[in-house]
Amino acid sequence: MVVIRLARSGAKKRPFFNMVVTDSRNRRDGRFVERIGFYNPVAAANEQGLVINAERLAYWQGHGAQLSPTAARLVKQLATKKAA
After folding, report:
1. 5: which of 13, 42, 56, 68 fits an S-S bond (Cβ 3.0–4.6 Å)?
2. Separation of alpha carbons 79 and 84, rounded Å
C-alpha cells in the first residue's frame, strides 16, 4: 500500500520532517517515491513551518495513497489556515 507520511531528519533536539510518499513496508526514514512537502515544528516566526504541494497531494490521493494520522492532521491544519 502507498502511504503519505512524515520522515524525520534534522539534528538531535532540532526535528525536521519531510512529507513523503512511500510504500508502507519501507522504514520511516528509508526509501521513498516522492517528497511532497515538509514540516518544521521548531520554525521561527519568520520561517515557514509547514509546506505541502497540494497538487501532488491530490494526485497521490487520487491514485490510492493513504494519509498517516499525523499527515492527515497537518493537511487539515494547513487547509484551515488557508481558509482563514
Report:
1. 68
2. 9
> For 21, phi and psi rounded to 5 degrees?
-105, 125
Q: How far apart are CA 63 and CA 50, in angstroms?
A: 23
Domains located in the chain, CATH noted: 2-83 (3.30.1320.10)
d(CA 74, CA 76): 5
Comparing C-alpha atoms, which of 19, 35, 11, 7 is closest to residue 78? 19
Sequence-distant contacts of 72-78: CB under 8 A, at least 24 apart: 74/6, 74/19, 74/39, 74/50, 77/50, 78/50, 78/52
Residue 58 φ/ψ, nearest 5 degrees: -65, -40
